[in-house]
Amino acid sequence: ALKKEISFFKNHPDLKNRIVTAIYFGGGTGSMMAPKEIYEILSLLYKIFPISNKAEITVECHPNTVNSKKFRDYKKVGVNRISLGIQSFQDQNLRNIGRNHTAQQNEKLLCEVLKAGFDSVAMDLMYRLPNQTLENLKFDLNKIKELSPAGVSTYSLEPEATPLESKTPEIPSEKVDREMFYFIGDFLESIGYHRFMQPDFSKPGKECKYVLNAWRAPQQLMIGFGAGANTHYFGGYVWANVYPVKTYIETLEQGYFPGVKGVRVSIDELKHKYMVLGVRALSLEKKSFKKMFGEDISNKFSSEITKLKRLRWINEENDYYKITRGGLYYIDNISKVFYSQANVLVHMI
Fold it and tell me: Which one, 10, 22, 196, 212, has least CB within 10 Å?
């Protein structure tokens, strides 16, 4: 079914003069797919799309689904970047968030994938875990320093509406969360990483292209394949694929395109998207906004920018509006300031 969906784009007129720069197997556990399956999909993608010979090809991996052989096989079929869901290097932390892999397993796998010769290896780190202290967090950060992956994505635990909701009283306070947030940033930057998105750090030149394409303003087109996948701005539309998987397969077997909930994106909505998503990459370029829309950011979003400057969450530096150190922690709030009316109504519903 996935192959059938990809094939719908053969000779699509909106692909003219476009080059694919990133392919990402994930948004779920990409490593559930065997190397042979990855190879088959990549082979088809290369037939349908113009793909850069420097394209970043990532597989998102859960520790329980990979081993050293699978890493080597992924590399053989063309994968050049691995993102590994480590979360922590301490067993108690992993148990507290319901992960059924161990600290020893995490360290062993990270060492193995680093030796496999990928262009880039990244990992996820979670913090603000039940009963976690700053000293406990320092252990994980020192392990990152020791093992030295190319990238680290850091996420504060949000237990609401998850099986961890019952642990809410054990979750560190917002004050501790903020302290951990800034400590992580300062620590990683002190050992050679730089923050290229609010939660994402990398060594120089190892930034995730997929993330930058999707979030940095101006945002690039993204086509999502598979059940429940999302596509952004292709042909001027956004849409989500049908879900669940069974319905997705049945739809394609009957010869139908699986996209549902398609909406044409207006120019005004794109201006808001430029800001809402762009602030997560920590700076907004005035020149590219003017080139795209024929209007100055300062004219379109005058009141919003004034408000954020007053809060000291953004600064104006030459051709850019940049998120301040104080604004980093409040990136979600900053994004919401730029929501369009339609976006506000969607989130209210």
Answer: 10
How many CB atoms lie under 10 A from the CB of residue 125? 23
Q: For residue 53, is pLDDT > 80?
A: yes
- Tell me, yes or no, if the pTM score tops 0.70: yes
Q: Is-contact 58 210, C-beta < 8 A? A: yes
For 18-46, b/e burial (b = at least 16 CB within 10 A) is eebebbbbeeebbbebebeebbebbeebe
Question: Over the stretch 58-82, which tens digit does the pLDDT of each residue have?
Answer: 999 999 999 999 999 999 999 999 9
Beta strands in the chain (DSSP E): 20-25, 51-61, 81-87, 120-127, 151-156, 194-195, 200-202, 230-234, 237-241, 259-264, 283-285, 314-317, 320-323
Burial classification of residue 216, based on how many CB atoms lie within 10 Å of its CB (0-12 exposed, 13-18 middle, 19 or more buried)? buried
51-61 and 20-25 beta bridge pairing: parallel
At 258, which amino acid appears?
P
Quote the Cα angle for 273-162-216, to 5°. Answer: 20
Rounded to whole angstroms, the Cα distance separating 139 from 236 reads 47
